[in-house]
Write a structure and sequence with these properties.
- Its EC number is 5.4.4.2.
- The structure is a single chain.
- The protein is an alpha+beta fold.
- The chain is built from nine helices and 22 strands.
- The strands form three sheets. Strands 1, 2, 6, 7, 8, 9, 10, 18, 21 and 22 form a ten-stranded antiparallel beta sheet that branches.
- The protein starts with a helix and ends in a 6-residue tail after the last helix.
């Protein structure tokens, strides 16, 4: 008798090992594991339209794929933080799907030990603190009530980055989240071309759709984990009791619920947040569930309506986004965008692109952000970003920034 669960688990791990940089899309969630290869068609860009018509363009490409004989084709890829920038969405040539990844406790977590990195913070920590102070001044002036400010680390090595190994490490370290690797457009480098990969392990589900069922899991309010179990529990309890963090979380939940409500006949929004944890962080979490009014509403359409949430941008969105462009000294690219998939019937999963990096040859650019509200302390927000970097750093065999 075949144990189908064991077969599915083995296939999921096989898909992870068969990922190849520059030729694949990989996505794992608590529900499934997807490996896609090649490009059958790309969702075309449309200058100046932002996300307004993205789901319609994607649906048209999926219809064309079906008419070409593809059975239930899917769109895979990523959407950047800035709605004015082009998305990277394609219909793959080949797709394999299995159940969720399951790792035995005894599985060895490999790292790229021995690799030396030069680490350059952008901005420097002192400059980030000054940026947070500018954000707080904007809040005090009434320009916005919340702003999310991020920083990056650029890591370079004499050796080429092993993206496949890094992806496996991320998946093994973050078994309850969403692990992904997405090919990005090549960036011309003098006479050669350099492949880029968006890679990460996000804890945050932006939205998923299965038939009429819709789910979202906004996270806001965080504390770093501690290796000391007593201290770790103290931090968790403090986060759950924190009025500041609960207010920050409530703002995000209200925004997500308001964006989903027009699409749903039923929407269940818990009155109180709960706690979830990753290997490196505690988060306040709210699981929102709803029932669609119409099956013509795809997961990508829902994701576009939600993006960006106050958890990665701020509120009001337009004013926070404008201030982010003034304060942050770099382009976020796909960081704090969304990554995932949507099939031809509209089902799909989209996660918030956090705990991630852009990898290119011998370099990685890591990102981390923190939500700034009235009462935030710049030094605490700096510490929070340092803790969030650890998801990627641990997968690289590095314990500290």
């Amino acid at each position: 008798m075949i144990d189908h669960q064991m077969v599915s688990e083995a296939l999921a791990e096989q898909l992870l090992h068969e990922y190849r940089t520059g030729a694949s899309f990989f996505f794992s969630s608590p529900e499934r594991t997807i490996l896609a290869k090649g490009v059958f068609a790309a969702v075309p860009e449309e200058d100046g339209s932002g996300l307004e018509h993205l789901s319609q363009r994607a649906a048209a490409v999926l219809r064309d794929a079906e008419q070409s004989g593809r059975k239930r084709p899917i769109i895979v890829g990523a959407v950047p933080f800035d709605n004015a920038k082009p998305a990277q969405l394609t219909v793959p040539d080949e797709v394999w799907c299995a159940g969720p990844l399951v790792f035995e406790q005894s599985v060895q977590k490999h790292s790229q030990q021995g690799m030396a990195y030069d680490i350059q913070p952008v901005p420097e920590p002192e400059a980030y603190i000054r940026g947070v102070e500018r954000g707080l001044a904007g809040i005090a002036a009434g320009d916005y009530s919340k702003i999310v400010l991020s920083r990056s680390l650029r890591l370079t090595s004499p050796e080429k980055i092993d993206i496949g190994r890094l992806l496996q490490n991320l998946a093994q370290h973050n078994t309850n989240g969403y692990t992904f690797a997405v090919d990005l457009p090549e960036r011309a480098k003098e006479e050669s071309h350099s492949a880029r990969t968006l890679i990460g392990a996000s804890p945050e589900l932006l939205v998923s759709r299965t038939g009429f069922r819709v789910s979202a899991n906004p996270l806001a309010g965080s504390r770093p984990r501690s290796d000391d179990p007593v201290e770790d529990q103290r931090r968790a309890d403090e986060l759950l009791a924190s009025a500041k963090d609960r207010h920050e979380h409530a703002v995000v939940v209200q925004a997500v619920a308001a964006a989903l409500k027009p699409f749903c006949r039923k929407l269940n929004v818990p009155a109180e947040p709960s706690l979830i944890s990753t290997e490196t962080m505690w988060h306040l979490s709210t699981e929102i569930n709803g029932e669609l009014t119409d099956l013509s509403i795809s997961s990508l359409e829902l994701a576009a309506a939600l993006h960006p949430t106050p958890a990665v941008c701020g509120t009001p969105t337009d004013k926070a986004r404008a201030a982010i462009k003034e304060i942050e000294p770099f382009d976020r690219g796909f960081f704090t965008g969304m990554v995932g998939w949507c099939d031809s019937v509209g089902d799909g999963e989209w996660v918030v692109t956090i705990r991630c990096a852009e990898a290119e040859d011998h370099a990685l650019r890591l990102f981390a952000g923190a939500g700034i509200v009235a009462g935030s302390r710049p030094e605490d927000e700096l510490a929070e970003t340092s803790a969030k970097f650890r998801t990627m750093l641990l997968a690289m065999g590095l314990n500290n920034e």
